[in-house]
Specification:
With 401 residues, the chain is mainly beta. The chain is 6% helix and 35% strand.
Length: 401
């Protein structure tokens, strides 16, 4: 089916057809990799049945969940080879990696210059794919558009956002999307609940400016989120945000595996660890080393950078900190309607929450993004901001011995 036929086939719940020429499209920044064909009988515990838009956990899934560990398949990857300290990730050199779900933090839509509200179309496809978890292991991620986090969506207050969600035919599970920026039951979750191969759509008006999380809300919601189904939408205020030199998109997440941290092979979800809030991995943008080895952020001395930071969770609070820097401005909880706080060292971001931080870069070198619950560095959470430029001895220099 060509694009025009596909667009013509979409119809919103109220029956109004959407005229594609009148919409502004928001799509994923990268192509979606293929997913190997998988048997439907391997559905994960916690998948749900859908009847007339209502969500209900299946009895079979509940029985599997009660049995303890949740598995996608028998992978035979129970090697317990442990890695050493990951504190070295804060300072070691990056290397090129492949087979990655990580979202490039530098890929952020530009600020919105227009002054009038428009219809903005957002296309999301739920993709389940096996990909790199760290240098030793892989994991079956559940994603929006093939990346973790999903695409960064940028609209203006007053815009009408039309969300088109498609669940790929080779998915094992039902998926949907809940936009925290939407005012309406479930944030759109029930209206977009799709079995594999289905597609649905809904619209909402972006009434409240700010930075908001979106995520899958199919039960067990925490597992869908932990496996990678989260992202953010920025609703710009009238007049937009103050200009900066660079913007980055970073989200923290947790991964719950049956195998211990540092194991090799294809790892399995663990439902009991999820319920007990004991993740094996803490990550930025999808997996261990996503923002170090794969996508280190880069900037120059003299530039002001803005980081859109979100916490997908699903369970733990983040104490977001950049080692060696101080946030010049912080929009707490993603709120952009009040003046930002200034001169902040660490920002607390709850699960399902966000913050916008800005910092002017004055000294060259490597700055490390961490959760200041620093044991989480040992479980994979770190990112690099590499700054190039002239030294600033009046601000920072060694004392000769």
């Amino acid at each position: 089916m060509n694009r025009s036929e596909r667009d013509a086939s979409w119809e919103l719940p109220d029956g109004d057809a959407v005229a594609p020429p009148a919409t502004r499209e928001v799509r994923s920044e990268e192509g979606i990799e293929g997913v190997p064909a998988i048997s439907r009988r391997s559905l994960l515990a916690g998948s749900v049945g859908l009847t007339l838009g209502s969500l209900a956990v299946s009895q079979e899934a509940s029985a599997q969940n009660a049995g303890g560990t949740v598995r996608v398949a028998e992978h035979g990857a129970r090697h317990a080879n442990r890695v050493g300290s990951l504190s070295q990730r804060l300072y070691s050199l990056p290397s090129v990696v492949a087979d990655d779900v990580a979202h490039d933090p530098s890929v952020v839509p530009p600020s919105i210059a227009r002054q009038e509200a428009e219809i903005v179309r957002v296309d999301l496809e739920t993709v389940e794919k096996e990909a790199r978890l760290d240098e030793r292991a892989s994991f079956r991620f559940w994603t929006f558009n093939g990346t973790v986090p999903g695409p960064f969506v940028r609209v203006r207050v007053g815009d009408t956002v039309e969300v088109y969600l498609k669940n790929r035919e080779d998915s094992w599970l039902m998926h949907n999307v809940d936009f925290h920026a939407a005012t309406g039951p479930g944030g759109g979750a029930e209206l977009t609940s799709c079995a594999p191969g289905e597609a649905k759509a809904f619209r909402f008006k972006a009434q409240n400016p700010g930075l908001y999380v979106y995520h899958c809300a199919v039960p067990p919601v925490a597992m869908h989120v932990a496996n990678g189904m989260y992202g953010m939408i920025l609703v710009e205020p009238e007049g937009g945000l103050p200009p900066v030199d660079r913007e980055f998109y970073v989200m923290q997440g947790e991964i719950y595996t049956n195998e211990p941290f540092g194991s090799e092979g294809l790892l399995n979800e663990d439902y009991d660890k999820l319920l007990n809030e004991r993740p094996e991995y803490f990550v930025l943008n999808g997996h261990v080393s996503a923002l170090t080895d794969h996508y280190p952020m880069k900037a120059n001395v003299g530039e002001t950078v803005r980081i859109f930071f979100g916490n997908g969770g699903p369970n733990h609070v983040s104490s977001f900190h950049v080692i060696g820097e101080i946030f010049d401005r912080v929009y707490l909880n993603g709120s952009v309607t009040k003046p930002p706080q200034t001169d902040v060292q660490t920002v607390v971001v709850p699960a399902g929450g966000s913050a916008i931080v800005e910092l002017k870069l004055e000294v060259p070198g490597r700055y490390v993004l961490v959760d200041h619950s620093l044991s989480r560095v040992e479980r994979g959470l770190a990112g690099w901001l590499d700054v190039e430029g002239e030294e600033a001895p009046d601000i920072f220099e060694p004392i000769a011995s």
